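#onboarding

Welcome to the new folks! Below is a worked example of what a typical request in this channel looks like: someone posts a single protein sequence, and someone else replies with the predicted structure as tokens. Don't worry about understanding the tokens yet, we'll cover that in week two.

Example request:
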Amino acid sequence: MSMTMGTKTWHLALVIVLMIILNLSTISRVDGEQQVPCYFIFGDSLLDNGNNNALQTNVKANYLPYGIDFPTGPTGRFSNGRNIADITAELMGFVEYIPSFATASCREILKGVNYASGGAGIRDETGQNLGTVISFSKQLLNHKTTVSRIVSLLGDEKSTEKNLSKCIYTVGIGNNDYINNYLMPQFYPTSRLHMPDQYAALLIEQYSQQLKTLYSYGARKVALFGIGPIGCTPANIATYDTNGSLCVDFINKAVQEFNTRLKTLVDNLNHNLQDAKFIYVNVYGISSGPLAGLQGPNPCCSVANIANNGGILTCIPFSPPCPVRALEVFYDATHPTEAANLVVAGRSYVSLLPSDTHPIDIRQLARL
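Example response:
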């Protein structure tokens, strides 16, 4: 990830971002109507829209300066404005944002549900150092409850199965299995027990079983978001010696072990599961060019303890954020701004480069 930029590179980044914004605006007008009947979201704080608000956890974002640029203010989204799921929903033609599982009303679930929880991971123990989080396994149980409710609303399982097969599912999980597990030996033994390649293999093995469970609940069109270059976050740069590099290389190499296996898993799931249409979103690649280095690596808001040593990496409540948030990458010590989310969501919906998504992008997936 490019974190320091010269004037020419900075201008290039700004131009490309503006081009993406204009392109996505055109797509929204052309696509017009809602592309799929419903949209289900699983993941961590990059996608959470309020599921952590009522939990006993340190991972919350339901206070200013979070949501300062969101229409309704602070909601529990870990950004100044929209997150990736919000922007993706807009691009697919949804008029309203997908509700959180914590707040979704009876009939709202027919349009989709967001189950994501800040701090959550593939492994059940991940993030527990921060308090209560809703792991991916628990999110799947919540979705099972939702599917049962949809059966009641639609009248029978066959109608539900047909409807769910047309919906889009996005899963963005795995970040915390490194940030709040593998990279925290004071709380978890995983880094002492496993080399990076072994740990990635273990994660993918468990993730594979979880995704098969999601498939058994009716999911057919599933976009899997890989892990971004988390070695380039303000928290990790402040915590580790970068040895003159712009980022913490050993962390980025570790998550690439996961991403490589995740892309292979997508091919295996598509081959082995009938009618399955899984895709891989290369968040690492999308975030590794000048687009990711709008400005950084400093967080936009004030953070009490920027080092990732078990401290809180979120904004100090009610602290004033930076004034020009549209040109920043990081809002706090680890979460992106709306501007960065716009880039990742845009290039996952319509790939700018062949490497952005595999084998197709979300727009093509929605049309299948």
